[in-house]
Amino acid sequence: MDRRNPANGLLTGRYALASVDDADRAVAGAREAFDSGVWSTMASIDRGRILLAWAELIRLNKERLAQIEAAEVGKPIRIARGDIQGAIDLTQYAGTLAFDIHGDAFDHVHGTDLGVVLKEPIGVVAAIVPWNFPAIIYSQKVPFALAAGCTVVVKPAEMTPGTALEMSRLALDAGVPPGVLNIITGEGSVVGQRLAEHPDIDLLSFTGSTKVSHDIAAAASTTHKHLSFELGGKGATIVFDDANLDDAVDGVLFGVYFNQGETCIAGTRLLVQDTIADAFVAQLASRAAELRVGDVFDDETDIGAMISESHLKKVLEYVESGTAAGATLVTGGTRVNVEGIEDGLFVAPTILDHVAAASRVFQEEIFGPVLVTARFTTDEEAISLANDTVYGLANGVWTKNVDRAIRFGRALRSGTVWINTSNDGAPQLPFGGYKESGNAREKGRAGLEEYLVSKTFHIHVGPRTPFYSTRAAVPTESA
Ligand code: TAP
User: Fold this and answer.
1) Which of 232, 240, 278, 465 is most exposed, with the fewest beta carbons within 10 Å of its own?
2) Residue segments in the chain with a per-residue pLDDT below the cut of 50
3) What is the pLDDT of residue 470?
4) In this structure, are residues 185 and 156 in contact, taking their beta carbons and an 8 Å threshold?
5) What is the best residue among 132, 138, 206, 227 to mutate for testing ligand 1's pocket, by most ligand atoms within 8 Å of CB?
């Protein structure tokens, strides 16, 4: 299959479309490699060293990988470079975690018995990755699974397999033994579906849409594989009149327009206190209109292209549905034609104001550069609006009142809450969702634990206390 850069229509890559048989061969290879112990029984410190060497090879190839990422996703090169740096950081972090894999000991079980809880690799992992952050999301899964001692089959998104293929090749160069890391390119409905059904996969780690996660859960239902889901979001950013408003404007813009809004953790719903709402929205609108849309290889570009023509249409239809439901279009809302680029799928940074909480644009994931705005008066109203969604991935609050910040941090139903920042994270901080945003925790120590399973040794110490009392033999009649 051919992949064209959605920001200029040029061919960026030609990839194999794997079949179900290819998927079966990849799983068989991963199974054989796992069962052979070549990786799973290697000293974890040695696995860690290989992962660190891998991170170094990614670093040496950083610019090349960033160019691939920018071209395939249609994202600005500045963001793509940050993504590859993120992949390096995650791989290094996973490598250091491998140095410290250990179980637990219980030395006072029943007084003198000893309990030892081992941590073992869960087995063969399937990793299914979406198109918006191909390198980062690959790196939230694969190095952690490898650190744990698992073997892996990766299925990147059909449209963006380039960096996953290149990084997997570098893993081989770094010393990951053949068969341990396998990669198949192709359609989710074919090879992804096969991985979900496959009885030889022990854990399937999926990042993507909530809808596809339900299909995967159904396909996996005849097996007992572990399912780990990182799904969609509809993040709220709450801005109070006591916030540093200049910082908040920048944070809201970054939260919603980063990666042209194709971000699961995008702060796509702005909830702004009514005392400052008009001025705040006006300031956002003038800054949004200044953002540079277009050539993704220009260091100055802020907003890249939508991933596909059909996705661009979907985003613009959402904007129409918002205005039809009574919202005010403040800025954007149209396709952008960039001078000198014929085939760019660009959408202008968009703001809808006075959006009703029940409307589709407030409830559904748009996955484009569209901010929807609602106003609130009281803290309770803000919490209730923010939590009025099936999703629960990340929310943010801007305030200088520490009591309020912590109260909101506790009350918001999401795996991440940002306080006076947006779209932030670090390899050591766990990440994941509440509700329909999924059940996984990636990154941090939790991101390693996903791929480990515990086994208990119960060791009896000392003489046995009989459970059945020894009775004198009952004499028989003949005796
Ligand atoms: P999806 O359409 O769900 O696709 C994700 C991956 O699943 C792709 O590799 C896709 O393959 C594959 N797939 C599709 N149908 C499948 C099936 N029946 N069985 C198994 N695999 C299947 O998502 P997307 O459009 O690529 O990405 C956007 C979504 O991902 C958004 O909802 C976004 O919020 C979510 N997301 C979440 C996070 C986190 S960390 N929570 C991060 C990024 C994105 P194809 O490419 O061939 O369709």
Assistant:
1) 465
2) none
3) 78
4) yes
5) 132
